[in-house]
User: Which sequence fits this backbone?
């Protein structure tokens, strides 16, 4: 059964003071775990002077996703100079396609290695620009964001099986009358920000379709979404061929993005909480094969565990200590560290203990 659209969601979550810089939380909660000092530590690890975020777990490459995450965290950390370096490098190096979108992958030894875009990276960048425009009252950021949003809408939002959906990239995701989609590309707070722009009605429909698809994309004993899924012309959702048939490093962001947009309904968080508590909240596997349910021996990272702890609290499963999240290690990789910080920001915005 599909839950009501927008069920148990706060009406407005990410106002000017709510994303990362709130001065205090209710008395029974901890102080905000992400602040200017946390941003400086993040920047020291992953932001190079020229303005690119280094994916330390992936051969030191940079990509549009990392630029978007870095820009969002720079806004949360109140660091406009770093934001401008990030945005400047993104414009100079990645915005070379000619259609207003970014090439998704850059390598230190070869430059832009794949000119296809990644829609989630473009969305994160545009959302960061909108947040920067609000934080620093800079209309140029808003103008740049609107241009990216329009380019995304023109090339990546499509109508299929009665739904408005988002192609993961301009090329390679149409297989006859079947689309290949990525559920973690539904970045709900960004989508809501885009829907609030003039002419943003299709983005509202995209948010609605995301909830419908998440109700259908539940596979295996834990009822988890796959990292990559298909949607055929009849509206049937499946697990995509050509990718690892698993839940894992991509789809772990599904509950994170729902929480960042203020969703609280346990329906959305229960599969992820059930997975985490099944393994005792410590030795949670990084991936689960779908639909079979075979798990890897690779353990979930600190960042993934932070997402699971958030999911457990919102699902009401296992109590506040259902998942043990170790401190970030000095050499914690880019993706795990990023997930940890965004989980903390989501908890802060929801007013729950991180």
Assistant:
């Amino acid at each position: 059964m599909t839950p009501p659209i927008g069920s148990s969601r706060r009406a407005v979550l990410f106002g000017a003071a709510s994303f990362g810089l709130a001065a205090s939380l209710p008395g029974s909660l901890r102080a905000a775990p992400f602040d200017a000092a946390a941003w400086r530590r993040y920047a020291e690890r992953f932001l190079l002077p020229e303005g690119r975020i280094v994916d330390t777990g992936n051969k030191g490459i940079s990509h549009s996703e990392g630029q978007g995450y870095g820009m969002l965290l720079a806004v949360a950390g109140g660091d406009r100079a770093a934001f401008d370096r990030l945005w400047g490098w993104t414009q100079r190096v990645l915005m070379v396609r000619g259609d207003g979108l970014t090439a998704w992958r850059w390598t230190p030894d070869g430059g832009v290695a794949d000119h296809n875009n990644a829609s989630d990276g473009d969305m994160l960048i545009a959302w960061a620009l909108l947040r920067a425009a609000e934080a620093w009252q800079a209309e140029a950021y808003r103008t740049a964001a609107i241009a990216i949003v329009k380019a995304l809408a023109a090339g990546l939002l499509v109508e299929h099986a009665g739904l408005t959906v988002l192609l993961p990239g301009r090329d390679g995701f149409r297989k006859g009358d079947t689309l290949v989609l990525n559920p973690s590309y539904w970045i709900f707070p960004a989508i809501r920000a885009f829907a609030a722009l003039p002419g943003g009605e299709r983005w509202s429909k995209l948010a609605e379709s995301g909830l419908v698809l998440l109700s259908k994309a539940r596979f295996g004993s834990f009822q988890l979404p796959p990292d990559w899924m298909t949607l055929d012309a009849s509206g049937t959702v499946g697990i995509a061929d050509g990718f690892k048939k698993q839940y894992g490093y991509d789809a772990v962001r599904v509950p994170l993005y729902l929480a960042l947009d203020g969703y609280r309904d346990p329906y959305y968080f229960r599969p992820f909480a059930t997975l985490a508590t099944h393994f005792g909240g410590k030795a949670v596997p990084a991936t689960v094969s779908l639909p079979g349910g075979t798990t890897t021996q690779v353990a979930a990272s600190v960042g993934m565990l932070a997402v699971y702890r958030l999911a457990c609290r919102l699902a009401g499963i296992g109590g506040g200590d259902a998942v043990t999240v170790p401190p970030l290690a000095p050499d914690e990789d880019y993706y795990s560290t990023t997930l940890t910080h965004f989980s903390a920001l989501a908890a802060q915005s929801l007013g729950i203990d991180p």
User: Anything to note?
Assistant: Residues 1-7, 10-32 have pLDDT under 50 and may be disordered. The chain is about 40% helix and 10% strand. Residues 184 and 254 are 5 Å apart (CA to CA).
